[in-house]
Amino acid sequence: MPPQRxxxxxxxxxxxxxxxxxxxxxxxxxxxxxxGQLPAEVTMLVVNREHCGALxxxxxxxxxxxxxxxxxxxxxxxxxxxxxxxFRSASxxxxxxxxxxxxxxxxxxxxxxxxxxxxxxxLLPSFRGAKAIEQALExxxxxxxxxxxxxxxxxxxxxxxxxxxxxxxxxxxxxxxxERIHEQEHRILPLAVQLAAxxxxxxxxxxx
Length: 208
Ligand code: GAR
Known about the structure:
Blueprint: E1 13-19, H1 24-34, E2 40-47, H2 53-61, E3 65-67, H3 76-89, E4 94-97, H4 106-111, E5 116-120, H5 132-139, E6 143-150, E7 160-167, H6 174-199
Parallel strand pairs: 1-2, 1-4, 2-3, 4-5
Antiparallel strand pairs: 5-6, 6-7
Helix pairs in contact: 1-2, 1-6
Bound molecules: glycinamide ribonucleotide (GAR).
The site of glycinamide ribonucleotide has 17 residues, from helix 1, strand 5 and helix 6.
């Protein structure tokens, strides 16, 4: 059963975040909530790697975090079942994949229909997959960016919520381009969460 509508209850929207890497987008979401830019709270972080920056950030920020090592799970579906169980136990309303580098299954999608958001470092539908920034540099595009979108079964697809463009400069390396894209990701991810929640009636505001 989908979680109760936030507008019908007396508590803030509860976000679950999934991360595999540095966790800068996770931290940006936490800070947007704490600054009152996003009327929500990050309730739980799930990581799949013990030594990832996201876990250290959660500790520093005081956000409860759960490690579910994907190698301990017999299948992608089993991993997603574990994640859903943790988020359900924390009464999470909406889930954000903030640098989650595993392919998700219908188990997660069916548990959080239209409530699963991903951030990706390209202007989708260009450059899907794990090496989006390298692909953009190889293709020689002059503009790249990032996309926040609702998750569908096909990797890096699904309705786009917010995008931001950045220039690709002559001497860019994957690192310098990634830094420019990250800045925009941190800005658009809270906006995308707000938009998705409004569309579902989980937050007040323009629903489409
Ligand atoms: C972000 O750039 C995000 O777009 C990307 O991983 C990075 C995580 O950074 N996600 C993907 O490539 C998913 N296909 P972070 O750990 O600092 O938030």
